Amino acid sequence: MQMPNWMPEPGSPLDRAATFVMANLVFIACSMLVITLPAALAALFAVMAPWVRGRDVEFFSTFFSAMRRHWLKSTIIGVGDAVIAVILYVNLNALNLMGIDNPLTLVIGSVNFLVGLTVLLTNLYIWPLLVLFDLPLRRLLTISARMAIGHLFWSALILAVAVVLLGISLFIPPFISILTVFSAIALLVNWGTWRIIRRYATPEEIAELDYP
Q1: Deepest in the core among 22, 118, 197, 206, taking most CB within 10 A?
Q2: Is the pTM of this model over 0.70?
Q3: How far apart are CA 94 and CA 157, in angstroms?
Q4: Measured in Å, how far apart are the chain's first and last C-alpha atoms?
Q5: DSSP secondary-structure letter at 177?
Q6: Nearest-CA neighbor of 183 among 62, 19, 37, 73?
């Protein structure tokens, strides 16, 4: 007589649900130290990326190996994003001091908006590309920006849905948000950007993603 197996079958709905929730919880735990937030974000994308290609992952080995492998690039990207955010924040405060009657307010405000939007749209592609392909940092940023700008409507749609999901999380019970929201956004971004990324990836690169 065999002992009953309480572990869900790999790839089953229960296994995916457990991975989905576990990814969210471990991401939150690993992000509590702000310095580890970028690496944890890369790891979250690494766990969710195979799902959009119909493949499953072993959660713990994928998550923590991705943190180790991508910590340097992800940290540089995270610091860069933070620096840009601080600069935009300082500029917005300066605009408030200038007053709305100053003609420069509209110009500077528009530039800030465009810069902030471009950075957000570019980040949609940075994180999936980071965990999918071993690209030099400069090339990673360049390709991400070109995809974001070249597919502006689709990229803006992905960003809008991600913002909506984040907004919904503020109005649902907190325990549900803690279990789902970050995994849901990462899965959405992976799904949306993969529709663009696969157009430019070579067959060899795509085959390598699914090996072995």
Answers
A1: 197
A2: yes
A3: 30
A4: 34
A5: H
A6: 19
